[in-house]
Amino acid sequence: MVTGQGPASAKARDRVTAAVTRLGYVPDAAARALASRSGTRLAIAVIGHTAAVLDDPYVGRVLTTAAHIAAEREVGVSLHWLPLNEPVTLAALAGRRGLGGLLVVNPTRPALETVPRDLRGRVAAIGVGTRHVPSFDVDNRTGTDGVVRHLVSTGRRRIAMVTGPSWLPCGDRAVEAYTRVMRDIGGETRVVPGDFTAARGAAAAAEIMAHWPDTDAVFALSDLTALGVLDGLHALGVDVPGDVAVAGFDDIAFASLSRPALTTSTHPVEDIAAAAARAVLDRGGTDRVTCFPSTLVVRESA
Amino acid sequence: MVTGQGPASAKARDRVTAAVTRLGYVPDAAARALASRSGTRLAIAVIGHTAAVLDDPYVGRVLTTAAHIAAEREVGVSLHWLPLNEPVTLAALAGRRGLGGLLVVNPTRPALETVPRDLRGRVAAIGVGTRHVPSFDVDNRTGTDGVVRHLVSTGRRRIAMVTGPSWLPCGDRAVEAYTRVMRDIGGETRVVPGDFTAARGAAAAAEIMAHWPDTDAVFALSDLTALGVLDGLHALGVDVPGDVAVAGFDDIAFASLSRPALTTSTHPVEDIAAAAARAVLDRGGTDRVTCFPSTLVVRESA
DNA sequence: GTGAAAGCGCTAACAC
DNA sequence: GTGTTAGCGCTTTCAC
Hints:
2 copies of one chain form a homodimer.
Chain A: H1 10-23, H2 29-36, E1 41-48, H3 57-72, E2 76-83, H4 88-95, E3 99-105, H5 109-113, E4 123-126, E5 135-138, H6 140-153, E6 159-162, H7 170-184, E7 190-192, H8 198-211, E8 217-220, H9 223-235, E9 245-247, E10 264-266, H10 269-282, E11 289-292, E12 295-297
Parallel strand pairs in A: 1-2, 1-3, 3-4, 4-5, 5-11, 6-7, 6-8, 8-9
Antiparallel strand pairs in A: 10-12
Chain A binds a DNA duplex through residues 1-3, 6-9, 12, 27-28, 30-38, 97.
């Protein structure tokens, strides 16, 4: 009854509530979990090639937010790496008892299909979702559109794009948005594959300038890559933003500290993680997909 | 008995172990926590002026590591902000049941004194410790010594230092180490207060160059501040490392990406967090203080 | 609507 | 050493 859910008259509930606060009663999470088999942990699973994905600052931000939200409900958070090509692991993870809920970061759709039935309603995805897994994600399409149109509005026409890793489904919509803008302005699409690393950005910059020497802007789907592009361009003696404008995506902490400071699009990562964590923890009926806006941040590089 | 701890004959233990693995038995963390009153959560408390300290990437790294270690033991991690001047909150935190252990990040000694008795043996500090709270920390003294001596060995003599916030006890040893080196080389100490922010670094650079125009090196006890110093010096038209060398401390992710790339001292944050988390989770008798080495990383700025 | 009783899966304390 | 039993603090179910 202490949950406030059960059947009870209004005044009875009030009296109990009063007693609860007066006595400083705090429910015991472990006992509750044991009796209701509801679990005591919120597991956060990050999909990627290697366990190194866990060290990404982005994961840190998600984890920090989730751990904070979870703390208010007396539940803990645990962190797990899900090897990209072994979705089976997800089932193994879910098999463990004590699992109160599951947050999957950067999921692929096949991986999400392996989520066991009995976890439904207690899973959320930060990234793409499925019919059974609600999605909390950045609106990549509009975000990309905003950045590329900013490039166009500042006079750029020969714009190249460095994408993300091909297995990450969220990149598709960004590429589509970029392609659409280029078609609208009658420009050629210049897409180069990326992997979200700075090293790749530097290499991509060299490739782009070699293939299309007249390129006047580069948009990278990751700030780290954009920073790499900045370095690569610098090494080539190309002036930014004089000769070529550079824009990133994510607005990582260092974007404002680079020289030139990086123009990018900022994501409400904390809001997204908080919403996803709450959806799982509070089991509220959630929409199939919740989109969060990405907003342009104009600095020096474009 | 399933814990492997209790009294039992060797063969009996073996048979049980065999059965355990054959049947795929997995202990229920919630039930265990309830019966043994051992708690299901590892709380991580970060001390600071505002709740914004939780957003520091450093906290993210600690949390990530702890959550990973905790996951192996089926316990979750929760994150809490401890207002700098209200150590009482720590007691309140510990009062809640379900608390398996506590990790205090960047503690002050007074705050640590408020740790309740019954939590002893299940608390660890990342930073300074007390008689009852084991400390896991970076060897700031040797780390600082290494950086400053590197500055000296490259010909610098008029070296200024930007410290950290005064309430953080760990800064003292660093200032001592700096002072000692300066005394050894017969140089003047030039200490300016800092607060670990980049903005303060830029301001500190201006102050330093105004007070001591002949300064030929600046050491900041934080990479973010050092990055700010880089900016401040740049604005002043001072060449780095030509006119003035700049060195930081921490080796944050972007230290290698700045221009010029930042010379700094790297800390094994993950190792520290892992050791502290294990000490709390495994209740092993721990040393009063465990020091981790900070090692010089020479890049372009010094 | 309300109260009592039966577990949830473990650990710990006690008898054998 | 080994087996047994009584809870841990809740939720749930079932009588009232």
